[in-house]
Design a protein that fits this description.
- 19% of the residues lie in helices and 33% in strands.
- By secondary structure, it is an alpha+beta fold.
- It folds into 2 domains: 1-34; 36-196, Umud Fragment, subunit A, CATH 2.10.109.
Amino acid sequence: MEERAQKIKRKSTIREYAEAAAIAILLALFIRAFVVQAFKIPSGSMEQTLLVGDHILVNKFIYGIKIPYLQSTLIPISEPTRGDIIVFIYPEDKSKDFIKRVIGTPGDKIQMQGRQLFINDLPFDDKYGFYDEKAGNPNRSFGPVVVPKDHYFVMGDNRDHSLDSRFWGFVPSAAVKGKAFIIHWSWPNWNRFFHLVR
């Protein structure tokens, strides 16, 4: 009788652990799908803001609740604004995620002459743009183009080493996954832990 009671107790304990593990997994999947997701910076296109080896957290909730994989918005909350650093599905290869800074929002006219960006025909204070002096004298002129409805014009902060909207066009709003907000880990840049992304 006592042996049977111990077996039942043992099964009950195993069941409790299994249920707790299942709940933890479901909660983690929910958070990853709808709230926060981790990404690693693989290239230098966002230097000096984000470096190779930075591990960032992306707020997926800020731009609305989306159905995973379908990328259709269930509950809109806000939209990307100029200056936001966003993670999005690369329009030319949907298996890849890219990270860039929003420069133009729907309706904006974007033009670049040398190092000077113009938005709606006015000079833009491009305080995050980094230009590589060792790149020689690249042709930086671009545009003008007008950002269509429900699209964004994005650029890497490392202007001379970024594959961005200047080359492949605009980012559809449906492709935006979220906004980068913090570096939670960086190797080998230890001083960048918990550094807010701006």
